[in-house]
Amino acid sequence: MILSFIIFILFNLLLLKDFKKYYLTLFPSSLLFTTLPLLIAGTGVLYLSTALIISGVFHYFIRYRKKYSIFKNPFKKLFFINLASLIMLNLFCIGQIGIIYSFTEIFFILHLFILYKIISSHKDLKYLCKYTCIIFIIITINGLLELLFHDNLWFSMLQRFIDFDLYHSHIDDIRFGFGRCSSFFDFPITYGDVCAIYFSFLLFLFYTKQKVISKYVLYFTLISCLLSVILANSRASLLCFFVGLLHFSIKRNRFASIVGIVLLAILMSGYVIDNYNSIFNSNVSLGSDTDLRESQFLIALNEFNSHMLFGSGFDRLGEIQMQFEEAAGMESYLFVLMISTGLVGLVNYLLTWYYSFSTFPKYSRKVPFFIMTAWVLASFTSLTSGVSIWYPVFIIVILFKINKLNLVLA
Question: Which of 83, 96, 120, 165 has the fewest CB atoms within 10 Å of its CB?
Answer without folding.
Answer: 165
